[in-house]
């Protein structure tokens, strides 16, 4: 294979109760990336469209990942990468993760598919570390494995793929405000009351069980975050309004996507998702803040090959 | 129905990562209780064998529960209760819970089966409150529902029954030392680092997923408690030794049952459970502390009717 074109999905990390542990991948939002073998050794990012991001391979998540992979597995060819960002970086939908995971997947294909999904996740985490300061795995694992993923452990890295009810839909609103990852981290409590931690892990257990059994009521009941959301929602204009309207319109739950500012809602089917979409849209219309809306299935297969030769 | 004889199981609460949220019921250890209609209104505990416990219905967990039920549903008969404790109170295997849940179940049968399992759990929690000071639901829900149960929420009370791999076995050792519930509560941290809470809820998610998919490796990897066990194990003589020997002998995981002093180990089948049983027994033999050993299947149906007429 000399060329591959792929789609790497946007991802929602945390998913309410599962801070730093859960992620899910979107079907219709993500990056399109190409990877071409070249005669000149090394990695080059030759073009980025859709967003203003560095072509420099030392600072771009995709570049960092690709270089690390070629260091691990030296080859006699080079790789040119192009990236089309399908959504805005800084939205809280795992933008750097999509590029990092896409690079891990694409480069691995050109190398002859020699790395496991877990190894691809580990390479992708280097991209997260380079761009966000932390080698966090929740977004990249969701992009690579698809569906819901649980980062069960970091040492050793252990990713669990959780089944997804087929009709589950994600509605999301991205208010065009900047939430710096640094600020989003700084508002977090360093310590939490044990009883709150118990409440949170009981909900994580409920959510995981609900996903395994297609129990929408249980999923809905468990989509509660009493630890991170109360701290972070202050950074997101009209969060409470959006959440309230989404729930009133029938969403199973709503919360902050990653570190925000995107707010996501999970819905049990297309019809509900469309109502939730319009309700949120209406509620935000007069708020003097530009915003994008998303309605998506959940991507269950991870990164997709669009073309190869 | 004028008479019913039931078996109410012993239970392991917490199950490593799931402090105050998870419980499981044992097949072969528990209380045998009888409930007889009488002409004299009110509740009497006429006999307790197997342990030295109060017959007074205001202080005995079973009495407290039965009285609350008859207050809620007045009837023109009375109820006599007998209890045979099949194991030692104060062992950390839900002794008061077995009596409380057994009473809820038995009285409900004499009332014509008018309460749901959730309502029976709520009544049972009154027995826990009266005897332990806290209306905790993890043991009583496991006794009533059977199998693994998750107390997802207290307000409102929400119990989730989690499936159990058929071959799963419990080995437990009860060192005959007293661990006061008060002490076991006092050693707990009031606050925990957020990153430790994340580790813990990731393991809860992994354990629940592993139980749903019969994934013994995932169950084993997830049976980790970095919050409560390090604090409480100091109250249990030779805890580290027992855990180390259990794991070396092939147990999936081991931890403190409830607030101790019983130490439980989960094993993937009978053969492993027998090896783990003998290994723990040998390790404790020369420790100058009397102890009981248990090897049990997991009770998947909850409280059982032994006789009725």
Question: What does the model show?
Answer:
2 copies of one chain form a homodimer. Chain A is globular, with a radius of gyration of 19 Å. Chain A has 10 helices and 12 strands. In chain A, the strands form 2 sheets. In chain A, strands 1, 2, 3, 4, 5, 6 and 12 form a 7-stranded mixed sheet that branches. A 4-stranded antiparallel sheet of chain A has the order 9-10-7-11, sandwiched between helices. Chain A folds into 2 domains: 3-163 and 299-308, Ribosomal Protein S5, domain 2 (2-Layer Sandwich); 169-297, 2-Layer Sandwich (Alpha-Beta Plaits). Helix content of chain A is 37%, strand content 28%. By secondary structure, chain A is α+β, with helices and mostly antiparallel strands. The model of chain A has no long low-confidence stretch (mean pLDDT 96). Chain A has helices at 61-72, 95-110, 117-132, 138-145, 181-186, 194-213, 216-222, 229-232, 239-248, 270-284, and strands at residues 3-13, 22-38, 42-49, 78-84, 148-154, 157-162, 169-175, 191-193, 253-256, 263-267, 291-297, 304-308. At the A-B interface, strand 5, strand 6, strand 8, helix 6 and helix 7 of A face strand 5, strand 6, strand 8, helix 6 and helix 7 of B.
Summarize the structure.
Chain A is built from 10 helices and 12 strands. Chain A has helices at residues 61-72, 95-110, 117-132, 138-145, 181-186, 194-213, 216-222, 229-232, 239-248, 270-284, and strands at 3-13, 22-38, 42-49, 78-84, 148-154, 157-162, 169-175, 191-193, 253-256, 263-267, 291-297, 304-308. At the A-B interface, β5, β6, β8, α6 and α7 of A face β5, β6, β8, α6 and α7 of B.
């Amino acid at each position: 294979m000399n060329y591959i074109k792929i789609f790497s999905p946007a991802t929602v990390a945390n998913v309410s109760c599962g801070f730093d542990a859960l992620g899910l991948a979107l079907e219709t939002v993500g990056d399109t990336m190409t990877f071409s073998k070249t005669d000149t050794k090394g990695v080059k990012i030759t073009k980025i469209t859709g967003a203003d991001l560095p072509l420099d391979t030392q600072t771009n998540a995709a570049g960092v990942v690709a270089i690390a992979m070629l260091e691990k597995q030296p080859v006699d060819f080079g790789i040119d990468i192009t990236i089309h960002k399908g959504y805005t970086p800084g939205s809280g939908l795992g933008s750097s993760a999509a590029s990092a995971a896409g690079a891990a997947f694409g480069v691995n294909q050109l190398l002859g598919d020699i790395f496991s999904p877990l190894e691809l996740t580990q390479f992708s985490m280097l991209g997260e570390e380079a761009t966000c300061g932390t080698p966090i795995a929740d977004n990249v694992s969701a992009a690579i494995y698809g569906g819901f993923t649980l980062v069960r452990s970091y040492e050793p890295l252990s990713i669990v793929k959780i089944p997804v009810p087929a009709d589950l839909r994600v509605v999301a609103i991205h208010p065009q405000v900047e939430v710096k990852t640094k600020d989003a981290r700084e508002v977090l409590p360093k310590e939490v009351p044990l009883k709150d931690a118990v409440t949170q892990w009981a909900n994580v257990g409920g959510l995981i069980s609900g996903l395994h059994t297609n129990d929408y009521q249980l999923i809905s009941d468990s989509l509660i975050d009493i630890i991170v959301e109360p701290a972070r929602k202050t950074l997101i204009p009209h969060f409470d309004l959006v959440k309230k309207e989404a729930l009133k319109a029938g969403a199973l739950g709503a919360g902050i996507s990653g570190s925000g500012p995107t707010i996501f809602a999970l819905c049990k089917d297309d019809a509900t998702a469309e109502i939730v979409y319009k309700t949120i849209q209406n509620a935000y219309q007069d708020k003097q803040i530009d915003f994008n809306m998303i309605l998506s299935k959940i991507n269950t297969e991870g990164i997709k090959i669009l073309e190869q030769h």
